[in-house]
């Protein structure tokens, strides 16, 4: 769908560089404000690509993961000088709360970006990128990503039917639920492994592994790809420089520094935001071209 | 020279005491359409897999398998992979990558074809199959029939000389199966493709095939033309043979008179009509056709009160999706053996799940003997209403059938689960399989096992979703016997199915689901009489006869 339009029309190399950079900086930079700026960009990318439909689908699992990180960090880490309160005899420190929160935002940012990754870097592009380097690994990785939706659908079917025989995770005591959950996963895996054998047969039957593979899909490296790559490289090196000078980093331990942004921090936040939304420029360009041609008609 | 030739092939699986195939000799000429039939476990798949050497099972093999005169193991690996195409049973599991277009290209990539050559073949094949609108779709969004069509096209991309199909229609509904079959026939006729297709339900294949080969426990039991097969099947009193014939053929051959003895046995409704005329058999009145079928279970009048009622049921899967059921009103009476027909995606499965209380309707309610289903506790609800889904694998959760049955018995609150499991297995003829992994059972065995589990709680009502899908005629007969026994004991049955012949033989009531509501509902005879599509072939045969008679009378 909508391949060849906007962001999705960019060469797979550009896309993989973009995501590699976006996620690396998402993990290198460690300041809630900077990461929030990046997250805002990632949300915009989601909106531009599919009106955030996939993002909304993932919202609940994502948010619950984040909440867990936020809660768990102060409970297991007691570093830091500023003690807020005691839970029993366990000190809860401001620093570990702040660290947990920043971690959570970092996670939120990376995951949100990853949702668009699934939309932009289709398996076809992924295969194109890695097939030459690591043909087998590429295929395995690609099949694995394709497996997730299938597993999810199957788990739904399985849960529905198994409920009739009392194997359910929504009723009964905790132990029963846990046992039922394990049972469900166990059957799901047994079933899927069984099917995977047939998939393997189908691959072999169509000559997989009989020699060097060729690639059906080809992507031309166009001018827009060159421009995008250059722009990403420029933004990336600016970010790297900023990071090397210590901007965009929040010193949490041993004592939380002020959350106020320095000039350098602000610059890093702005550049990171720009980096994330950069490919949306083509989305905008192609859309306006489309509008223009509609008007002229 | 034969395209594929097997000479005295004997094959034994490791650890098996009996060969899976013994001294099988078989020739398929260029452009021949060979149908390989036989019950489940007769060695059909093993045979096809031995021909397709990339997926050959491990084991001891003797004899020779040749393609175009050369043993298959001597062909270069790429050529062999391309020259013999294989389509398997499960549409889902054969798909490797994400989009249809890439799936079609997958084989060509494996062979290292040039990009331009690939594009050209893609254009041709997509045109032939009419797949252009699907090319950019994700493979997991397709229907079962579309998936199987894509699998077939993906194999043909390699331009095979021989096409092997291993029960390609077993998982499809009859309409999709017919479409796939039409495509296979076209390939065979227009491209002179050699086709070897294995299937245990061959009534639709008899008119199309050039040759029928029947395997029986690994040995060739029959090899000849479809018409010769029909005669042979009737000559033998074995139900496994007889039941494999189309209903009209069976009907005609069972009524053979001196005048009709010289005629070719009819294989389709059209042929049956001219057979009737030529043989001088008097066209029976439509009512006779019905009475020639096994009598439907006796219908005790006192049980006629409503057991399960649906009142204005609305259901949609998503708030943006169109409603599957739109104010459906229906009622199942105690003692019914009801059958629910309906096209693909008409909501049959959804309705069954709603009636079983597995899903809640957004509007309207379902009542069990007057009580609202949502008010009954889940455990009680599932005990009273047994539900069997299309895919019996879903019912299993343990590593052996015994463990699964025992868990079901324990869940039903039976005093001695282990003994109950043994007894249930005995009743369903599964005693020898108790210690097998459920996934290693055949489809029919899985189905019976799931039925045994569901029956542990002695449900008053049993809902079955497509129970005859993928079953061979004998397995179907066994299932029918169990269901008949249950019905006689007073269990109310509801089957959602595409299998008109099965329904006609057993049901006491037929209903048709269309547009989210029940549009036809009545006794089987009246129901089939008024239908052209949802009608048995015998009904169709006599309907045309009846019409002709009426027309003559009017003139």
From TrEMBL, chain A:
InterPro entries: ABC/ECF_trnsptr_transmembrane. Its main location: membrane. Keywords: Membrane, Transmembrane, Transmembrane helix. It comes from the Bacteria. It is a multi-pass membrane protein. The chain crosses the membrane at residues 12-38, 58-76, 97-120, 126-148, 227-247, 267-284. CDD domains: EcfT. Pfam families: CbiQ. GO terms for cellular component: plasma membrane. It is found in: Membrane. This is Energy-coupling factor transporter transmembrane protein EcfT. It comes from Cohnella nanjingensis.
From TrEMBL, chain B:
It holds the Pfam family ABC_tran. Its main location: membrane. Residues 4-242, 308-540 form the ABC transporter domain. It is found in: Cell membrane. One of its GO terms (molecular function) is ATP binding. One of its GO terms (cellular component) is ATP-binding cassette (ABC) transporter complex. SMART domains: AAA. This is ATP-binding cassette domain-containing protein.
